[in-house]
What does this fold into?
Amino acid sequence: MNLNVGGIDKILRIVVGAALIGLTVTDVIGVWGWIGIVPLATGLINWCPLYPIIGLNTRGTEKSE
It folds into this structure.
């Protein structure tokens, strides 16, 4: 598993996921807010299963020293 989520993408996933879960817990939105688990999890583990399929990588390449 190659890490493929990084930078702004990671931060946005974590914020959006946590916001959706928070809104669901407080009954502001319905049960569909639990879908926030997906962006939260992919942001925390730095890997999105859809990215390899569409050929996307927001992490970039690591520099070797």
User: Anything to note?
Assistant: Helices lie at 8-25, 37-45, 50-54. Residues 8-54 form one domain. The chain has one domain: 8-54. The longest helix spans residues 8-25.
